[in-house]
Amino acid sequence: MIDNRSKYTAMIKTEAKRLGFLSCGISKAQFLEEEAPRLENWLNKNMNGEMSYMENHFDKRLDPTKLVEGSKSVVSLLLNYYPSEFQNDDTYKISKYAYGTDYHFIIKDKLKSLLHFIQEEIGEVDGRAFVDSAPVLDKAWAAKSGLGWVGKHTLLLTQKSGSFHFIAELIIDLELEYDSITTDHCGSCTKCIDACPTQAITEPYVVDGSKCISYFTIELKENIPTEFKGQFNDWMFGCDICQDVCPWNRFSKAHSEPLFNPHPELLEMSKQDWEEITEETFQKVFKKSALKRTKFTGLTRNIDFLKS
After folding, report:
1. Is 173 a catalytic residue?
2. Active-site option among 132, 194, 208, 304
3. Is residue 183 one of the residues assigned to a domain?
């Protein structure tokens, strides 16, 4: 029997590049032994805050073969979202990943195209596409696939382009050639830890999710605890501080995905514009944006917390 693993692997990686992905790495679909105790410990310390969904499907989170029956390979993909233009300096800030159209739609379409290509060119291959909406440990798989290393801020870092990228996966029942893990290049640097205003990075490689500005401004549905007043540095949706200070992000290059470009009005908005925003403007400017996740009421709650 002819072993086509090398050929199929090369085909998939070439097509991923054609579809606009930054990089593609592949690892064997199997139980994540190293992650299991780490995840259990993190959950036991309630570092997931009110993100109770993190406690669900513990087994599936660690073993892709329980998530996708018969799976053999995890194809990990990165998509760059670093913008070429930024918000005004003196305004309420939103995380760069939310500047344009919600990434879930864009990446899902690309993943479907990649899966369709595999089925057309290789034959009967079953699998599922994932964009952080299912119990998949994206960063662990991306690191296992040699796409980068998990930095001290717990985000995936690459030497070539830093960390401003989305991670997605195809979990398929096709055996392929597997990539090897890359090395950690954080060294003795602690810039992300030192810069976090809420001390959410409790130790290198551990983030207490319940103290993270992104958690407070997106995930938390109740009022933001008053003890964190004055610590948000004007971030009203997400936070990029630990990425902005990371030396590896000086290698970030602007993305080439038109759908990630911001609505023209977004970059011009001043603090006053945000404070006076109406639901109608919110729906218009952020029609297909990730900002819809926090809803208009969540956004105004965040703004009120920042200005009071």
Report:
1. no
2. 132
3. no
Do 287 and 204 have their domain in common? yes
**Binding site for cob(II)alamin: which residues?**
61, 132, 156, 167, 214, 239-240
9 is in which domain, residue-wise? 5-86+97-172
Confidence of residue 298 (pLDDT cuts 50, 70, 90): very high
CATH number of the domain to which 158 belongs:
3.40.109
- Residue 79 three-state SS: strand
pLDDT digits (tens, 9 = 90+) for 98-146: 999 999 999 999 999 999 999 999 999 999 999 987 889 999 999 999 9
List the strands of the sheet with 127-130, edge to edge.
23-28, 73-80, 165-172, 127-130
pLDDT band at 263 (very low <50, low <70, confident <90, very high): confident
Considering the domain architecture, whether residues 10 and 154 belong to the same structural domain is answered as yes
Burial classification of residue 180, based on how many CB atoms lie within 10 Å of its CB (0-12 exposed, 13-18 middle, 19 or more buried): exposed
Binding residues for [4Fe-4S] cluster are: 186, 189, 192, 196, 212, 239, 242, 246
The annotated binding site is made up of: 61, 132, 156, 167, 186, 189, 192, 196, 212, 214, 221, 239-240, 242, 246
